[in-house]
Amino acid sequence: MCKSALRLAIVLLVAAASGNPARAADDACDEAKDACYFSLAVPGNGKQILHYYASENPELAHLPSEPVLALVALHGHSRDANKTFNAALLAAQKAHVAESTLIIAPVFQVASAQSAKCSTAGVPGPAENDLLWTCSSWQEGGAAQNGSHPSSFAAMDALVLELKRRFPSLRTITIAGFSAGAQTVQHYIGFAANAPESVNLRFVVADPGSWLYFDAERPVLTQNGNPAEWSACLDGDTLRAGCEMSLSNQYAEACPDYNNWKYGTASIPANLLRTADAARKHYIDADVSYLEGDKDADNSRGTAYRVLDRSCPAETQGPYRLQRGLAYAFYDRRQLATGRHALAIVPGCAHDVACVFPSDAGRAALFGADR
Q1: Rounded (5°) CA angle 290-296-298
Q2: Taking the mean position of all CA atoms in its chain, how far away is CA 279?
Q3: Structure pTM?
Q4: Fold of the 34-367 domain
Q5: Which of 84, 217, 292, 344 is 20 to 30 A removed from 63 (C-alpha atoms)?
Q6: Span 287-335, pLDDT tens digits
């Protein structure tokens, strides 16, 4: 008998002796595929379903492993949950934590007739009873269009609770988003339900197109005391000599809605059930890491500039994603967590989750500084 056949026979014998079903090799969830696509019943009236990819089958009575960390990875605008799942898996493998880490990638479904501009090949379309959002509403906590209309944040709360129920060994749940998924995560932080008992909840925000500010102040640049543009002041990811950043509410007249939701906390939707002050406190107290690709700094190939938010409120935050991330990190240090929320720049990455998540900086943010 060849060695591989012998190993398989041993696995089957052990599984039979323990009463645990053995997963066939082609059923292993080492990539995004239909066999690794599961459903969650979101509390509400009637059947309300959120689907997700998972690296372990949550429906097994006896799990092949007892994960201590769950990484929930949120897809971008194109709802590329398969690519996001695979990038998160690769990051866990490169960090040598795959055996103890559960990888989850939820899919915020959009009605087929509306999803032409926000769909990715290989990701299943909406099934019966799936909760449905628009291409953009899920990114800012919007209410589902059907069921009892839960917000995307409420769906995330339900997912966190379900993971702890299904995997009681979990001690840390990290919710990470890339691009539009990062917008979702960064907005969700201030409105998330408290973590389940004995679980540490962490957040990673990677390359969002825009940010949620908690007051009317926005970073502005000066060079030698005069107003300056990012192009004049930024050298890579650092400011050139003579350039300084400060905070100002100077946009109030030129861009009167710049502080409205989803860019600020004016006019927070009532369905989010938390005031601006309460959301700010939750955000300050949260464990948050920021990631920015150092090449995601212009409109060149690979930056997904076509889908970058270029509205007036977004432009007050900076011209491109890297600049907006640097500006928000400055604001965070001054106004929020005074240095407890860390920004890491990822060398060599533009707007690509498959580059950012498995990178050295990405793994450190996702799994800990020693990774």
Answers
A1: 135
A2: 18
A3: 0.92
A4: Rossmann fold (3.40.50)
A5: 84
A6: 999 999 999 999 999 999 999 999 999 999 999 999 999 999 999 999 9
**For the chain, what is the radius of gyration of the CA atoms?**
21
Dist. CA 233–CA 222, nearest whole Å: 8
Closest CA relative to residue 107, chosen from 61, 66, 147, 72:
72
Residue linked to tokens 């959009």: 110
Phi, psi of 133 (to 5 degrees): -120, 180
Domain positions in the chain: 1-30, 34-367
The two structure tokens encoding residue 121: 């090949």
DSSP 234-259: EETTEEPTTEEEEEE-TTTTTSTTTT
- Residues 138-177 pLDDT 10s: 999 999 999 999 999 999 999 999 999 999 999 999 999 9
Q: Which residues pair with 72 in a beta bridge?
A: 104, 175
Task: Give CA–CA dist 132/148, Å, rounded.
Answer: 11
CA distances from 270 to 141, 184, 264 (A): 11, 17, 15
> Closest by alpha carbon to 182, among 30, 316, 53, 362?
362
Q: Encoding tokens for residue 265?
A: 């906390």
Rounded distance, CA 124 to CA 295, Å? 31
